[in-house]
């Protein structure tokens, strides 16, 4: 089996206070942290036992995972397993990157970071410096921002400072409608922003989730993705395997990159070939896309 797993344990605490995030400055109790650590260690052990499969993992914690030692350790351990193609995590890059040097060079090639810059939450120079550290360590990474008006200047500044080969993505802000002029400004920074601008029509359309992509929570409950609550079984008793099959999306629209990237009606597996989990495109268009993409067509 060749399987992509989006893992989201009970961790919900974050060290940042972003006004657009419901988990800003949320704190987990010691009991909650212990439960999250135990759940992650169980998941890591399960992956290690799947010697007959090929597995890719994207950690999508509600909070910030890399400030917790067990996430750093799990990433290094998973990257060292021959059956693991890629292990990636969404992070604010607020913590130090030195732990990545502990991974053997061959394992580091399988590690990738999806790094979000949050202006006002961390000094610009510190974030830029961490990006430079990742390049020095040879760790694949993408960088991005939320497309809010107040972030535009910092996003332009960051795009100018980063090497051309580092992809800087822009997420459409939740609930925000962009005029064509606003979309043009963000597309100048991220040529792929038109894919994020509007929700994609997904209802009844084929999606890889539930077939070769699954979502797993801390209890091992398997769902097709984070956004469809119907359960497919449990990871640890193997009951999910019989439920894996091609299936259409039951939701009317999909508005999150980690969801719509798997829609078969969109070309994003080709756009991000070799970098779907870490959101690194195979190649960017040579010039900004002026017109919005017809989403869901």
Describe the 3D structure:
There is one protein chain. Helices cover 27% and strands 22% of the residues. It is α/β, with parallel strands linked by helices. The protein has a 9-stranded mixed beta sheet. Strands 7-13 form a two-stranded antiparallel sheet. The protein has a two-stranded antiparallel sheet with strand order 8-12. Strand 9 and strand 10 (221-225) form a beta hairpin.
Topology overview:
Layout: E1 2-8, H1 30-49, E2 54-59, H2 69-79, E3 84-91, H3 105-108, E4 111-116, H4 124-137, E5 140-147, H5 152-161, E6 168-172, H6 180-189, H7 194-197, E7 200-201, E8 206-207, E9 213-217, E10 221-225, E11 228-234, E12 247-248, E13 253-254, H8 257-260, H9 268-271
Parallel strand pairs: 1-2, 1-9, 2-3, 3-4, 4-5, 5-6
Antiparallel strand pairs: 7-13, 8-12, 9-10, 10-11
Helix pairs in contact: 1-2
End-to-end Cα distance: 30 Å
Strand content: 15-25%
Order of helix and strand elements from N to C terminus = EHEHEHEHEHEHHEEEEEEEHH
Strand order of the largest sheet: 6-5-4-3-2-1-9-10-11
- Strands, total number: 13
Main β-sheet, in a few words?
9 strands, mixed
Q: Give the % helix.
A: 25-40%
Arithmetic mean pLDDT: 92
Structural class: alpha/beta
Radius of gyration: 19 Å
Total count of helical runs of at least 4 residues: 9
Oligomer: single chain
Q: Are there runs of 5+ residues with pLDDT below 50, and where?
A: 287-297
């Amino acid at each position: 089996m060749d399987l992509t797993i989006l893992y989201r344990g009970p961790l919900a605490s974050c060290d940042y206070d972003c006004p657009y995030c419901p988990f800003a400055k949320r704190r987990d109790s010691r009991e909650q942290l212990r439960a999250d650590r135990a759940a992650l260690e169980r998941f890591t052990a399960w992956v290690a036992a799947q010697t007959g499969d090929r597995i890719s993992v994207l950690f999508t914690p509600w909070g910030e995972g890399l400030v917790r030692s067990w996430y750093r350790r799990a990433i290094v351990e998973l990257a060292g397993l021959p059956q693991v193609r890629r292990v990636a995590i969404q992070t604010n890059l607020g913590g130090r990157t030195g732990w990545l040097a502990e991974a053997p060079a061959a394992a580091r090639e399988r590690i990738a970071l999806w790094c979000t810059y949050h202006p006002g939450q961390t000094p610009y120079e510190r974030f830029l410096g961490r990006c430079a550290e990742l390049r020095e360590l040879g760790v694949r990474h993408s960088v991005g921002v939320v497309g809010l008006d107040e972030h535009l200047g910092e996003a332009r500044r960051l795009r100018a400072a980063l090497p051309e080969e580092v992809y800087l993505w822009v997420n459409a802000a939740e609930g925000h409608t962009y005029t064509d002029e606003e979309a043009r400004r963000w597309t100048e920074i991220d040529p792929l922003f038109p894919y994020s601008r509007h929700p994609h029509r997904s209802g009844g359309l084929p999606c890889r989730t539930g077939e070769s992509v699954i979502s797993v929570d801390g209890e091992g409950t398997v769902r097709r993705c984070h956004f469809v609550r119907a359960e497919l079984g449990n990871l640890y008793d193997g009951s999910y395997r019989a439920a894996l099959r091609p299936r259409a999306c039951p939701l009317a629209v999909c508005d999150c990159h980690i969801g719509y990237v798997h829609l078969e009606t969109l070309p994003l597996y080709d756009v991000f070939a070799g970098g779907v989990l870490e959101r690194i495109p195979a190649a960017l268009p040579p010039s900004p896309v002026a017109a919005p993409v017809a989403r869901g067509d």
